[in-house]
């Protein structure tokens, strides 16, 4: 479908929680730095609600394609698409035009549920905690579909609520 690998960049707790009340249920400065390093310069595909959760504006340094059912939704500095398939196609075109290395899917829950079927790479931050009151979850990673690759344990830094493990999974 796309010329460039499709990656998912996500952080989730031991019980699969990725969000609570439209926000992340943790503070992880270490993870935010990794997120920036993985996405900078690459087109990102993001759901409308997730875009709104980080202020309603695109993150700097990465072209955005926002998935929304509202065909009239406009956000300055981003393109929109009414389906994940259309968003990935457009992001791939942007990747070709900008010499990007991959297309990054950055959330939220519904977008991840659809994208995991198409993703080539999962860049996962495993948050070493159970989050009891989360309301948005990441789907289970099927080990028959994705092979666990590089793994790095990261103790909680001074601006992190929890320790994490950075793991890259690749489609078999």
TrEMBL record:
Residue span(s) of domain DHFR: 5-171
Catalytic activity from the UniProt record: (6S)-5,6,7,8-tetrahydrofolate + NADP(+) = 7,8-dihydrofolate + NADPH + H(+)
Pathway: Cofactor biosynthesis; tetrahydrofolate biosynthesis; 5,6,7,8-tetrahydrofolate from 7,8-dihydrofolate: step 1/1
Keyword Protein biosynthesis: no
Protein EC: 1.5.1.3
SUPFAM superfamilies xref list: Dihydrofolate reductase-like
Pfam families: DHFR_1
Keyword Oxidoreductase listed: yes
GO molecular function, one term: dihydrofolate reductase activity
Cited InterPro entries: DHFR, DHFR-like_dom_sf, DHFR_CS, DHFR_dom
Keywords: NADP, One-carbon metabolism, Oxidoreductase
Functional description taken from the UniProt entry: Key enzyme in folate metabolism. Catalyzes an essential reaction for de novo glycine and purine synthesis, and for DNA precursor synthesis.
Membership in a protein family: Belongs to the dihydrofolate reductase family.
Name of the protein in its database record: Dihydrofolate reductase
Organism for this UniProt entry: Neorhizobium huautlense
């Amino acid at each position: 479908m796309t010329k460039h690998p499709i990656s998912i960049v996500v952080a989730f707790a031991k019980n699969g929680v990725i969000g609570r009340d439209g926000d992340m249920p943790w503070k992880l400065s270490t993870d935010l730095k990794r997120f920036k390093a993985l996405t900078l310069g690459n087109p990102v595909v993001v759901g409308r609600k997730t875009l709104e959760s980080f202020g309603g504006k695109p993150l700097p340094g990465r072209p955005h394609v926002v998935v929304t059912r509202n065909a009239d939704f406009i956000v300055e500095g981003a393109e929109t698409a009414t389906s994940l398939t259309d968003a990935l196609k457009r992001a791939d075109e942007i990747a070709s035009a900008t010499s990007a290395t991959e297309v990054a899917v950055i959330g939220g829950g519904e977008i991840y549920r659809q994208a995991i079927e198409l993703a080539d790479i999962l860049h996962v931050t495993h948050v070493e905690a159970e989050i009891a009151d989360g309301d948005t979850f990441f789907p289970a990673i099927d080990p028959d579909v994705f092979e666990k690759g590089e793994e790095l344990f990261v103790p909680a830094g001074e601006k992190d609520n929890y320790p994490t493990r950075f793991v890259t999974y690749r489609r078999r």
